[in-house]
Amino acid sequence: MKDKDDYLFSPASRTSRMLNRLRRLPTRLRQVLLRRRILFVLLLVVLCYSIFANSGVPFFPRFPWGSSKFVIILAVNQGGGVMQWKGPKEWAVERTSIANKKAYADRHGYHLAIQDMSIKKRYAHEWRESWEKVDVIRQTMKQYPKAEWFWWLDLHTYIMEPSISLEKQVFNRLDNNTYRSLIDYNPLNLPVEIPFVDSTHQINLIVPQDCGGFNLGSFLIRRSEWTDFLLDIWWDPVFYEQRHMQWEHKEQDALEHMYSNQAWIRSGTAFIPQRLINSFPDGACAEQRGDKRIFYNQDEHDFVVNMAGCEWGRDCYGEMEHFKKLSAALQRKSWWRPFSK
Amino acid sequence: MHFSIPSRSADQTTLPGSPSFKAKSRASSHRTGYAPSFFARLRSLILHPAPPLQSSTTPEKKRQSTRRTTVSVLVIAVFAVVAIFFTIMYVLFANIATLDPIGPRVVLVLGLDNTKYKDDYLAKIVENRKEYADAHGYGLYVRYVSDFKNLVHDVTKQGWQKLPLMRSAMQANPGSTYFWYLDQNAIIMNPNLDIESHITDVKRLNSLVLRDVPVVPPDSTIRTYRHVPADRMKFIIAQDHEGFQTGSFILKNEEYSWYVLDAWFDKLYQEYKFQKDEKGALEHLAQWHPTVLSKMAIIPQRIFNAYPNGVGESMYQDGDFVASLSGCDTPERSCLREFERLWDNRGRVVN
What is the ipTM metric for this complex? Predict the structure, then answer.
């Protein structure tokens, strides 16, 4: 027979009955978890993954914390509709591109800096024309003082595999993914060796090479003293005066010139195989059809496609829609990919 | 803390009860079971958690436990030895792989032109530098400038060759910090002054730096910075009445210097045909690129580049560090004559 003194709390009142139940609750919870240990472990794993993983798994909530060290710089509004009218197709292409980058940045917790590249007076012809990229990068570095790597993307690009993070694609095995020597692939026939190059220098600029040279449509640059020097020396009036008529691609050709002539630039620059961050659609680099190093390959799930030069002679809107649909189809077909590896 | 209400069947006397507990139990023993007050029970729970129900020590278990303890002691001992060994090895040798390269703190850089000057003249110059370097424990890097003629765009413009020479000196001496380029046609007149206390020491440099002076005298728009602290200066150079005097300058062996030397030596600058060759290119760099100018220190010329036939501020006086014969290969002057006069009057190292 249970005495009222047998209980720590006398169960005379209703509150004490409830307190009794509360007392039993932790034990109940403990019993459930012990019995369903697997469930407990799974819950813990999911929680950790949500909080700590760099890339988000779809459908699970992600808690982005801390400031990301990656910033995606998306160059939009090229020309600002001044030289060419921006019709509904141009607007649609811009919307698609921005939405694609935004989704990607949200998914992986990267910052996205959408920079306006409309024509400004200070970049008039015969004066820094086309060197806005350099100033924009400098400006973005000031805006994101804690970020380390900045990924420049032109407007006519599409991220085909949003489940792949930048760490996985490039940075986890940086030395394996990049190459520093022009011995194997030198489409521009730049000098392979120049004196005073330091091959152990930290990599500060990662640039892909396409069929015609360096491609600055999708490249990575790191915040460092070396980068400050590069962004300063990239445009120089003496260089510009002597060469701007020959430099069709302006800042890209300036970089190629400096790479050939200045050893400190070589020390800090690495190349990345084009298909890792800058695959081309079939229309670009048309002379090199079938070159496996250049063109987008959906079977191998290439990361980003850069529809370079689509505004001259090709259909930007058509290509963008095609790749958008293709990307959605690929995500549906291999829905298990984000969970693998 | 394991809270449990002691079971009624437990032996009351085995519980290490507090006196009050026992008193209570004795007092209330007239009841059917013990019924101490709530607080007494709580206190007993906190102070004396339930003891183990049994503690048997059979001989078998004793043997097992001693063996287990010896094994565990052995394992711990092995781990301890290994840990101590690795700690010692780490402390002694870990830095070997990441040792910074060693070398003299200051290196003098000298480029000899054996196409225009006789060997005995060059030998005297080298002797002058060597005496100075030996006295202060500095390094000396001597090359023929013709080694670099393939890199230079126009071989007749001698001034450009000092840039790959400096770059080469820096690459050859990764452990050295300061590199002082001094033209071949210059004599260290007062070798008792050492570079560090005379120029590069931070406080001294701070007192020497000319702030807010035009980069190109007399009145260029761009002027040197006013507030950059001297410990950030990596390029020390002097100006004469015309502009930068590149016959004597100091660079630190860092990223900045490699950038400046490579950019300065760029093919497009050499082809541009500046009026003052590499001096003009440096002035252009300093005016257009703040990353270059922000770490340049312009110091008075007499500190390390005085002219014996100069006027005013640049004129060499007795006791000055260096006398420079720059510009002596014009027809009006004679390098050899001026050199002989200075050579005989030069100071020697005082031990």
Answer: 0.79
